[in-house]
Each structure stands twice: as C-alpha cells, then as structure tokens.
Amino acid sequence: MLEVPHVQVSHTRESFSKFLQPVSLREARVIARMSHLCNLAYRVGDIEPSNLLHTHGLEFMTSSLVKKEEALAKEQASSVSSNESEESDGGSPRIGQRFSISPASAYSVASAVASYLHSQTTSLLRHRKKRFGAVNGDGQEKEAADYESSEMATLIASSPVTAVVAAKEGTKDAVAKDLQSLHNCPCEWYCCDDRKTSTLHFVIQGSESLASWQANLLFEPTHFEDSSLGVFVHRGIYEAAKGLYEQLLPCVLEHLRLHGDQARLCFTGHSLGGSLATLVFLMLRIRGVVQREALLPVLTFGSPCILCGGDYLLDKLGLPKDHIRSVMLHRDIVPRTFACNYPDHVAEILKRLNGNFRDHPCLNNQKLLYAPMGQFILLQPSEDVAPPHPLLPPGLGLYVMRHPREGNCSSKVEFRAAQRAFLNSPHPLEILSDPGAYGSDGAICRDHDPRSYMKCITGAVRQEAKRSRRLKRQQRRGLWWPLITAELSSMFRDGGGGGGGGQDRTFLVPGTTTAGRGAVVLSGSSAPGPSVVAAERFYAGVVRGIHEHRRQGQVVLLFFFSVKLALMQGFAAFFAWV
C-alpha cells in the first residue's frame, strides 16, 4: 500500500500529548548546529572558512558560487578562442548575468501571490459569514462547508499559483529544463568536511530566487526515478533536484574515493533546500552510488512535503523512518502547503487544469497533494515570540513525534491521523486570511524564517541544558550527603574518646538522607572534645547556609565545607595524638 488509509481524527492537547517526546539534549545540540549551518546557506559568499572551522570544526570545501565561477571562466575562455570579436562587442551574455537574480524581484513575486491569496481568502471568509452567519445546525454546517469548498475551488482555478501547472506541456518542459541548468539552479549550496568523522556535509539554501519560485509552482505529480517504484513527486522540485544532483555528484565521488568505507554523507537544508536535500539523498541510494551505511539522516527545516509514498519508499530501500527528519515551527505555513486537506471541489478543479492530477493516489485517496514523510520534530517557541499551538504544551519546547506503540497497522493509521491533525491546525487558508500574516514582520515570515528556527532551537537547547544541570546537581547531592554524614559520625566518635567516658548522644541536623530530605542522625560521645563541638557548630551553620542559599551557591558551599572538614579532621588527629 502506497499510503496508510486516511482517517480524520480531532485531537486536543491532552490526546495529542501521547505522540510527543521531548528531544534529548544531545540530539537538540545536533539540530541546533544544523540550523546554524542552514542559516549560513543564505549568505554563502560571506562564509569565512576560519570561522566555520573554529565554530563547528568543519572545513569549507566548495559551494555553488565556486562552481558557477569555474563555469564562467571556462565559457569565457571558450568564447575568447572561438569568437573574440563578438565577446568584445558584448554580443554574448555572461553567465553571471544569467544567474544573478535580484532578491527584490523574487520577493515581489512572492508578495504578489501572497497579496492575491490574502484578498481572495479574506473575501471567501467574509462572504461565508455574511451568507450563513452563526452556524447552529448540522444542515447549516454542511451547507457552509460546501459553499466554502466551492469558493476555494474558484480561488484555485483563478489563482496565478496554478498558472504554471495549467500551462501547456511545452512550456512546462522548458521550465523543467531551465531548472536543471547550473546557471539557473534555484538554490545556492555549500559543502564542508568534518575530518574527525569523515563526514561531508551538504547544506542547501531555501527559496531565494525567481528560479526557486518556478520550482515551487510546478507542483504537478510525476513518477520519482523509476515508475516501477510507484512513488510520485513534486515535478518542479524533482527537476531542480536532478540538476543539483549533477553538481554534487563529483564532490560525493571524491569524498568516497578519499575515505572509502569510512566516508559519511550528511544532507540538510531549509525550506526548498530541505526538499532538494531529501531527493538528492534518495537518488544517491536508488541509483546505487552510495551504500546505505554511508548516508546519515537528512535533517530539514520548514520544508514542504513533496512525495506521495515517501514512507513506503523508505521501507523499500531498507531505511528507517528517522532517516528523514523534518523540523517545523508550530505555525509554519510551508510544511502545510501540500499536506493539508484539499476539498473535493478543489481536487476536481486541479484535475481539470492538469491531467496528471486525475490518477494522483494522494489526491484521490488522501485528499492531499503530497503526504508527510519520515519523522516530525515539532518546535514550539516561547509565548513572547508567537502564540502557542493548540496541540503543543505551552512554552518553549522541542518534541519528536512518535507513536507509543509503533509497529502494527492500526498504530500507523492513528499516527498519520495525528500528523494530519497537526498539519491542518491551523489550515493554510486560516493563516492566509490573517491580515497580520504578511510583510517582513508578519506571521508567515516569522514562522518560516531560518533565523527564527535557529533562535528558537538555540533557546530550547539552553533550556534543556539548564534542566540537565539541575538534575545532575540533585543527583550529586544525593550521593554526597550520605558520605558527609558518615565522615562526621566517624569524626565525632573518634574525637570524643579523649573526653572521658559517658553515654552516647545523638545530633539531629537538617540534611538529605538516602531516602530523601529529612534529619541526619549523627551519634557521638556525650562528652565531646573542643574540636567536636566546633565541628558540630560549623556543620550546623553550613547546613543552615545551604538551605538559606540553595540556589545561589550550593556547589561552592559544599566545596568550602569539604576543605574545612579535611582541616578539622587534621586538627582532631593532632589533638588526639597530643
């Protein structure tokens, strides 16, 4: 079965919590490191190799900019030798001019599409409220839902977003060919090497150019690699991945040649870059270029779902699901775009616009374009950054989604329903209908910006590190107190021997026993010597100080007490000898 059966389930924060497990500190630090590398991918030309080596222990190897400069030099040399006069007249365009695209142009395209969607979705919701008002009965609910679906279908049919998939096949082929070109690669990238572990890291940038928007908007399904696999993929991103694969392959082969069986490859990326990283990772394995052991898990940040049958493909390749790990901010619209629920009216419109959607199994059976794949890691920022998600625990946190009873078919269905519930809460249309979602300070940019990912993940790591240190202190305290009390008991008995006979006395001082917090019982002579009395007074004072200043200096006080205790034992031995 290509995908698990679709079951719609409503979740609350309590019912959803069973699928969440806090990410360990070690794992969170790896994620934080990768998020920092992805943030650097948006300024590849400004990367300082020395800083990269000092901060992450990684040696900068090459980048897409270096490859383009090499291609430019080769073309210029060829042009000079073949037609020097034409080059001097400026008749032939330079490669740099073909791939240099203004970021402002890319943002204007995105803004135009977003503004159009905002106006349409706002109109849709306003008309719905005006026509139906408050929904009271089941019949009105169904009528309202049907009306909203038909309005959404009209939106899809008339939107410029569908202009690419509705174009003629020749136009789409030209776009696909252009995406595979080195000069029009939609995303920049760089690679760096970890000499200690023989790991080559490929870091791929997200949407930052007009070519990247071409890739995003050509979202019709096509077969991934071999049609016998039965897996469908987002065509635009797949075409871009083919071109990127050819660029990265020489680096991969050289790394395998140098390190042999010890070679490891790691792919990561933000947004579109994460999707490209996933496809290149799978292509290397399907084409037999790299053995399974050499491929480390892919880690993506805010990347859209782009495969129909992704989990099925991982099983077929013998890869665990956590080999594709998707980190997403709680309200990021991009991971939801192709994996949210598509009403029947919208599906029909898409099938009319493009015949490839008619036999698309995910659209026909799952009511979505592309299904979730691999493992989800959910990131909840603090409440001062963004409103909390209704299904996640309040406050800053990093959680991995897992079913408590993985393995059987029913658990897969239940788990996929939980993933779908998260991806539809909020639905992309709800996000687009909010006027505050747009602009550089809007919710869409805030929840998808790579800097937001890096900042929130870093905060989660610091929070978990503090919690871990606090737990270790408590564990150390539980081990130290019995040792301290045993030493004091021995010292009291030894120190009281020179004071004459007498009955034993018991000292009760506040402390921590092996069974928990309470009184520590110290036995000694009823006639202790001066050193023992001083030790008792000092110990009682230290314990009071520890309880009064527990949060300010427990470790310092315990160290100070240990030194004093050693000195007092020396004095006690000296007095006993005298």
From TrEMBL:
GO process annotations (BP): lipid metabolic process
Region (Disordered): 75-96
UniProt entry keywords in alphabetical sequence: Membrane, Transmembrane, Transmembrane helix
GO molecular-function term, one example from the UniProt record: phospholipase A1 activity
A Pfam cross-reference name: Lipase_3
Transmembrane segments: 555-577
Domain spans labelled Fungal lipase-type: 202-341
Record's keyword annotation contains rRNA-binding: no
Keyword Transmembrane helix tagged: yes
Protein name, entry field: Fungal lipase-type domain-containing protein
Annotated source species: Selaginella moellendorffii (Spikemoss)
